[in-house]
Each structure stands twice: as C-alpha cells, then as structure tokens.
C-alpha cells in the first residue's frame, strides 16, 4: 500500500489570523484549498470565493419531476388507462391534480435538497485523510486549520510549506492519503 | 442622521419628499371622478361610479389594514429589525380613521345601488334572511361604523404610545403597545374578515366561502409589504432611514413579501378548490360568472401575474434584498392586487367581461384616493420623527451590537455584565 500526499495543513489560533492567511493563500494563486473552523467566520466565504450551494437545483429538479410525474400518473389512471367519472368531474383537469402533485413537489424538493447536499459533499464516506491527524480534532474546539490540496496546480511541497510558514501557520504537517 | 446623537426633546424631522405629486394626483382624480360621476348617474344611476369607487377604496383599505397587521406583529413578536420602518407603518395604518372612513361615505350613500341585497325583500330570499340583522340598511351602516371605530381605537392608540416613547423613552409605552397588539390582533382578524364580507363579498350575497377573510388578509399583507418595500427603499435613498435600517434588513421584507406571494395564492386556490370539489350550484355560480368573456383572461393573468411570475422572480435568496429586481415586482404587485380586487368586485355588475369602457373612471378613483391618502400620509410623516427615537430595540434594528447597558440599549446592567 503506497502513501501519497493529500495536502499540507497548517494551524492558526484566531479567526482573524486564518482570515488573513486565507487572503494570502488566495493571492498566491492557489485554488484547491479549504479551511476548517469551529464556527462560521464572517467574510471567509468572500475570501474563499464560495458561491451559493447548488443543492437548490437538485431540489428544483426532484420537486418539479415529482410534481409532473404525479400529474402524469393521475392522467394515466383516471383519464387514459381506466377512465372513471368521480363526482361528475371531468376525467382530467388541473384543479384535480394539484393537491397530490403539490404534496409530492414538497417531498421531492425536500429529498432533492438532502440528496443534493450529500452528493455535493461526496457523502456518505467512511474515511477522510484528515482523520489521521490527531490535532485535527481541535478544529471543532478552538483551533483554525487551513489545508492546501496536493491536487492544486501550484502545489509544491517545499514552496507551499514556505508559504504556510510565512503566513503564520503552526504545526505544518503533510496529510497522507492511501492510494 | 445618527440616532445616537439626536436630542430626544427635539427629534429629527423629515419629509416624504413627494413634492406636489399627491396634489396633482388629487386634482386629476377629482376631474375624472366628477366626469365619471355625472356620466354614471346619467347612464345607470351611479352604479358604475359606486363600484369603481369601491374598487379603489378596497385597494387602499387593504394597504392600510396590511400595515396595521405589520405593526401588530412587530409588537407581538418583539421584533428588532423592523423598528426603523415601524413609524411610517403606524402612519399608514392610522389612515384608516378618519381618512378612509371619509372615503367610505360615498359607498355608504350609494350602497342601495351597489349591493343588490339591499333592495331584496328578506321574506322572499332566504340567503338575505339568513344574514339578518346585519344585512339590513341600518345593520350595514352600524356594522361599518363599528369597524371604523375599532380601527380608530387601535391605530390611534398604537401611534399615540409610539410617539409618546419618542419623548419619554419609557418602557411603559412598549408595554402599552403590546397590550393593544395583544387584543388588537384578534380584533384585527375579526374586523378585517367582517369588512371584506360586508363590503366586497356581499356584492353577491348568495355566495358562501369560508376562505374569504383569509384570502383578503393574505392579499392585504401582500400588497402592504410591497408598499413597505417601496417606501423603505425610497426613504433610504433620501437618507431618512439610512442609520436605522441596514441594507441586510431588506432581506426580511423581501422574504415576507415572497412568503405572502405563496400564501395569497394558497388561499385563492384553496377557495377555488373547495368550491370546485363540492360542486354545488350555490357556490359554483360565483366562479362560472368569472369564466365569462374577458373575465376568463383576467383569471389567467392573475394565476400567472399574481402568483407564478412574482414567485419565480423572488425565489432566489439574493434577489430578495436586490431593490432593482424587487421594486418592479412591488409595482407590479399593486397592479395585480387591483386586478384581483376587480375580479372580485366588478363581475357582480359586469358579468359579461371586464368593463374596459370605465377604466378611466377607476383610474380617477385610484388617483384621487391615492393622492388624498398620500397627501395625508406625507403631512403626518413630516410632523413627527421619521422612526421611533427611543425604542428599546432601536440599536438592534441598526445592526449595532452594544454590550454596554445604557438607556438606548435598554438592557439591564446585571445582564450586560455577565
């Protein structure tokens, strides 16, 4: 089993320190990097240039799909496959389909949001390279971590390490991944 | 204008900044209304003047009731973000009396022409007899007077204590406003339901719909939120609310506006669906009339213009605080709400289709009432401070996090030092 490098991780003591560090990493031209903090840090989303989550589109697609498929189902069963008069109503009409298909729209939307969120986060997964770092537990306590991924075009073990040192990172370590 | 440095004994004043626009609207409106009244009385004894006036009246009534709701909810939820915009909401709500009560007088006088049940003998019509004693001429006038009376009490007291807090800064004022909001929200729900049934739904008194009050409430809140969004952007541009309403708070108005877009459509659809599902002639006739002629197209415009288009435009998160997108939707909401009311009011006398030949008279009524009410609003607004000066949650509204206890923050020192 060979070990390959996943990235370089550095530790910071305060929200301000990691925010300024993140600015410098961005300015240095890195693209594949991430920060891990115990709580959301104001302004970080701008520094990291994060847009809105795409989960909403999953929600829209699944919700819309569920809506239309129930409309289709009602049309198929009531008006096409086995036409049945109920309460003197037309075989098929818009008000008739709205309530059940609307319910399914809500469910489809909720499922879409959940599944979309999991898919975009590549979850569920059993292991993550960072879990091997004992100090990483502190990311949910009082430490702030910045990781530069080895997949980044600019990644170079020595240069990246120098950058992390220059911007004030402590405990700079290599994160290994099992290939 | 920095609220922290203003002197409570000499509060800042600001004008709405509309200049002579309200007066111009009033003059144009009066001319159109006068011609319309003459023509209408000559042609049909004043029916068309009456229903055009009623249409415009219900439009402005719904805005005033909607803002009253926002003020009540502000106090009931002990909201912080909306302190800055509460004052002009109080002013608009206070237009319910005497301004809107005065504007109601022509309707009260023309009522026997507008409402067919007034000239029907209850002995021959069970749908009128079932609604006695309200559905008699004195009943109608007394009920209307009671409605305005309750609104007058509620709006004038909410405004009075709010203004008093500008001077004293006392906690008592907040407690009083909460007291009025507590029973006020119940009184509001009952009076709003009663008003729309008495003045609008009774145009076709044979009809039943338990959704009608909720529908009118949702529409009122919707159009009021559109108005509030426009006024807030306008007042912020004029630097009147600059300090007390941060840009981020527009999201909250936008979100409420969006929520009521959906809720209004829900009530309107639920009403239709219940009637459609029960399929009883005593209920379906109301909708059957509204499928005639151009009313069919009006209903289609409402489905798409009142709900679908605003819904999808307002759906994205970022849009709700983007005035460039929301303001056109708000202006559109005014038009759609007017059309929705027309869909409710006009078919009673014009079952054949939308009375396009009277559009200029409807426009005249809207211009006159809009001008008169805006003129009153501008006058009241300029008379007092443009936002509550010493509300305990003013700092919260400003987005300032002050951990030091002082008069403005309103927190108690023991809590703040923890």
Q: In words, what does this structure look like?
A:
The complex is a heterodimer of chains A (179) and B (418). Chain A is an alpha+beta fold and 179 residues long. Chain A has 2 domains: 3-52 and 128-178, Alpha-Beta Plaits; 55-120, no CATH class. Chain A has helices spanning 15-27, 44-47, 55-81, 94-120, 157-166; strands at 3-12, 33-36, 144-149, 170-178. A 4-stranded antiparallel sheet of chain A has the order 2-3-1-4. Chain A is elongated, with a radius of gyration of 25 Å. The model of chain A has no long low-confidence stretch (mean pLDDT 91). Chain B has 15 helices and no strands. The interface between A and B is small, with 7 and 8 residues.
Helical segment count of chain B: 15
Overall geometric form of chain B: globular
- Please state the structural category of chain A: alpha+beta
- Secondary-structure element string of chain B: HHHHHHHHHHHHHHH
| Major β-sheet profile of chain A | 4 strands, antiparallel
Largest interface between protein chains, with number of residues from each side: A-B, 7 and 8 residues
The number of helical elements of chain A comes to 5
Number of strands of chain A: 4
Low-confidence residue ranges of chain A: none
